[in-house]
Amino acid sequence: MSAPTVDTPPTGNPPTDNPPTAASTVQASAAGSATAPSVAVHSAGSVLRRARRGQLRHVSASSTFLSCHQVAEALVPITIGLAVDRAIATGDGASMLRWLAVLLGLFVALTCAMRWGFRANLRAVQGAGHDLRMLVADRVLDPRGGASADQLPGQFVALATADALKVGMFNYALAMAISGIAGVGVAVVVLARFSLSLTGLVVAGTLLLMVITHFLGRPLERRSATERATMAAATGLAADLIAGLRVLKGFGGERPAVERYRTASQRALAATLRAAAAESTIRAVAVALAGGLLAVVTLGAGRLAAGGSISIGALITAVGLAQFLVDPLNRITGFGAQRAQSLASAGRIAAVLNAPPAVAERAPTVPAGADRQAGPDRPASRLRLEKVTVGSVRDLDLEVRAGELLGVVVADPHEAAAVLGVLARDADPESGALLLDGTAVTDLHPDTAREVVLVAPHDAVLFEGTVLDNIRSATPAETGGELGPVVTAAGLDDLTEVLAEGLHTRLRSGGTSLSGGQRQRVALARALAAAAPVLVLHEPTTAVDSLTERRIAEGLRRLRGGLSTVCVTSSPAVLACCDRVVVLDGGTVTTEGTHADLVHTNPRYRELVLA
Amino acid sequence: MREEHSGDGLLPTASAGETWRYLLRLLRPRWALGVLTVLALTAGTCLQLIVPRALGWVVDAAIDGDRGAVLWPVQVLVIVAVGAAVLLVVTRVLIALVAEPALASLREDVLERALHLPAGEVERTGSGDLVARISGDVEVVTTAIRTTVPTLAMSVFLVWMTAVGLAAIDWRFAVVALLAVPTDIYALRWYLRRSRSVFAAQRVAEGARAQQLLDSIGGADTVRAFRLGPRHLRLTAQRSEAAVDCAYAAMHFRTRFWGRMHLSEAIGVAAVLATGFYLVRDGAVTVGAATAAAFYFSRLFEPVNMILMMIDTTQEAGAALSRLVGVARVAPPPAPERAVLGEPAVQVRDVHFAYADDHEVLHGVDLAARPGQRVAVVGASGAGKTTLANIVAGLHPAASGEVRLAGLPVGQLGPDDLRTTVALVTQEVHVFAGPLVDDLRLARPDASAADIDHALAQAGAASWVAALPSAERTVVGRGGHRLTPTQAQELALARLLLVDAPIVVLDEATAEAGSAGARRLELAAERALDGRTVITVAHRLTQAASADRILVLDRGRVVENGSHDDLVAAGGQYARMWSAWSSAGATDPQPTDPAAAPAAHGAA
Fold this sequence. Notes:
Strand order of the largest sheet of chain B: 6-9-10-3-11-12
Strand content of chain A: 5-15%
Helix content of chain A: 55-70%
Radius of gyration of chain B: 35 Å
Shape of chain A: elongated
Largest sheet of chain A: 6 strands, mixed
Oligomer: heterodimer
Mean pLDDT of chain A: 81
């Protein structure tokens, strides 16, 4: 159920070199379609269809049982009518008992059908919600990126929970509508026994009801979308303010922040009131039409009964059924409103699913990893940037030699971010090549590339779990075991004393229970524990004190001995431990050498590193 | 599994009485609309009640064989249908007009109080609880107002009116209808005994699911970098499936409850029919009246079921409401008279602080800064520097000891005084989502365009801001243009300039920018801080070296205190830190053979 697949099967040849990740089924890149986005195009309609088709079994079961329930419900007024006609009107006590027994039997059937129907219905609703939730999560976490940059995490969570469920509710409305049709059907069959013209009235009235509500549903869809959007904006704002609470309190910005939220909240209020008016109107029209239908049926049946064409029992039955019809008709008309809401949510989900990936995937010219062996004794990797142009970086040539510890000093943080983005396969270079032991990295699946070249983000996030879970999370299974050297190299030895339960201390999401320096070192330990052939660190020691920083720099040398490591940093302590230092200034490499040489010979270097 | 979400780890929740009082206070300004709502509800219900009687009249007319007499009850039915529809719109719109603005002010109150909660309080409970209240609970209450409240109100009215109608036909009908009541009460008691735990389990599971999604999606960049996608998808799937299972258990439970309600319906309708049988046989009522009674009773199914079924939604909404009111009614920060502030000096005496009861972080710290003086706080990571900074800035109240700002105890300063006295630039950077200029206006809402430009220029941010796609109007933060850490800190400096407080606390404010950025920031900070009293938590020791005085913090205690030269000469911890810092630079000869580096450390 959780396997993320798209509506349409992938076209072209599936790439052969992808790691078996859950996400790899979502791609459809063929040789030659180098830049075309390889994700199937979703629409509100296709998301809704997926929700229905994926849960067909449960939708069918719930429709069936709920229909049985409706039939039983329809038979209740009929039985009451018969009891009045055959027992009360005649004063026949034995007949009265019989009809009461029939009535009780009907209630047993009714309650069982309802029980099973709603249970299956819940499976259909929640199953679809779960499926869409996983689809959204899969798209956001897709190795090729591109979906997560432009919305608040809270908005994604709302999308994966509230909106996914709203789409799932379509299955609820569908089963309810089908059961409503069954209820109307029974009523029609029973009525047809009394009078065909009466039946014609009921059918025509029902159809009219459905058509009118369908057209009324359209403005509701728009208003419900506006309402959701303004409410989500207010909620997103609140979450953002709370996320930045300490910063906000630091400069005493609470009061203006409250004002800002008030404005957003009032905007949401206005949209809610408009949507409420629209929704009430739809409901009211349904009530008026159902009442009108009742009147018409009563008129027809009353005249027939008064004229002696049908019995009093038949009149009571017909009138009872016309009253009963309100519920199944509401189920049918409720479908339009729910479909409108589900479509609005499905549209938002489709928009996220359609976000183009941040990096293109080309057909591999050389099978990736053909010249690499798995396992810890594979030879050290060499990484070369050839004439790479990205952002303001022009024609950058840079080589990371096999097994070296390379320091990179970048004058402009934007350039650092751009180059790191290319190394991390978060973005494609505008031109030029990134070669890993001769293979173009840009031709690899991002996950394949990241297995070899690990770029540890500077603002890396720690996840819920223990400190140890976090450190171990990226450790390849075959190495496992001993983390002692990693913990020491990351300068985490003292954590065992400082934290109550040492490495087994549970972290809250985001690791907010640790200090900034502790978080940074745990994140560093995680990057080191991954033992990637090429490790790229970005300012790994900005939040630690100078003594610890120096210990970390030395630990880094010791632990990564023989493996290629790049430190994009301006920390003199770290640079001093590097085999070689390269300076990137104004978009190109301006100088290289050892830290000691550069410090003595290059004034610009001194300016960049020592201030 | 999630201990931190139970018990005392949460923000306050209001009692039922407090919740009611708070609601009444919110609704009071709209009492006239409320009265109109009740009138509309009553009118709508009375109209509904005419329907069974009209049907009974048709039955009696048919028995009499009078075709003409059938018409007028039908006309009544048409009028009722139109009237009921109109009243439905009126009622629902009125309910929305009464309840929605009240809810809006409630959520606004919640956010206001939340932002004024002590930072420590929010950190202790995690911001998750707060976000859950401001989004999840608000959503639950909104839905309740849109759907439950109108339906419930109409149902309660309908049940009462129907009971009256039933008694009007013959009092014995009303009496036997009561036979259904014990079963209803039994069903309700059975339900309420179990519902709390069933729905609590569901809420916990849904909370865990939201937390997992927030964790994975918020850390999507890290997930991608470490190829943790499959693991996070697996965790998400597990928690999502657990939540689905809990929802199923809840539905299983609900359907059993509905079964019990069906039982009570069956008993009631059988009793009314049997009574009709005897009353008609004895000639006490007509067949039409017995029919009307049966219809009356069967019309009770729907509203009674609605009431019973909505008890849990109502309970849920009530619980959500009491969580919201729990935050909203936290006493607003007392607004003492604006204090007369002295010279901007900082005095900290024997301050202790603990985040958890048994884990004290500061063990009696002293710190003093004269007006205009700069004091640097240095020390190893985890020594308590940030905690001290937060205490000085008034974010955390000290457990014991004294903190005086500008001559007054920090606890006596109201929010306005505090804001105009001290500003803190935190270690973490947060760019508030929205246009950049809105971020700055959080610091000073009435800032003119010139003020903004001036602050940006002073913070060294003018050039890059001008280069943004829409300059100051560019949407920044999560969901907008991503700023570099240096830019974000320059923005923080610009806010500081706009706030214009005489005392400033910098918590490693330049650390994240790297050296080149840090130097730029330090220059900007230099300009921004000129003439102010500054407490700097310094990571880059060059910053400490230029301070008037340096405080070395080690595991929550001040171990050294003096000027840079004094401390270097003393040869203590600061001297060792300084040596480690400067030896990496140009002052000492550097081992060109990298293998020698570890050995050099031991010599320090």
